[in-house]
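<context>
A single protein, sequence plus fold
<sample>
Here is the protein in question:
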Amino acid sequence: MSTEKNKVGLTITAVDPVIEKLGGLLANYQVFYTNLRGLHWNIQGDKFYELHGLYEEYYDDVAEKVDEVAERIVMIGGVPASTFSVYLKTATVKEVSGVFDWKTGVSHVVETLQLLVTQLRELHALAIKAGDHGTVSLATHGIKNFEKKIWMLSAYLKD
């Protein structure tokens, strides 16, 4: 096993799986961001005002996470994908469109957040194994942030 280090002092071979997992996370964030924009634009009905604003808050948050993940990939020696053709091949989050109903939209967001939390937990474990504390922090923050959103939106969905 090579002991060659990257720019931030991590063993290159140890962070390769972390870079790969970050690439999948980046793809999922990009698709999720686009889905949130569509939900924001298309929401109708009595929940319009509250969800229109909430979706905007969420896509702004995800946009920051996109940048954070892409920059982390570069920091630890990778090259982030930057095209939707690659994101759509890599992402496990599926595109949604034409969602006007608030329950369908919120349910989709909850399901996506659950998928992202699972992915972040896997990233966390890989980053610990690689000694990559920066990525551990990124994953921990994302898990905490998304778990709270899951809890709040799940409560919102209760009749």
Observations:
- The chain has five helices and no strands.
- The longest helix spans residues 12-42.
- The chain has a mean pLDDT of 97.
- The radius of gyration is 17 Å.
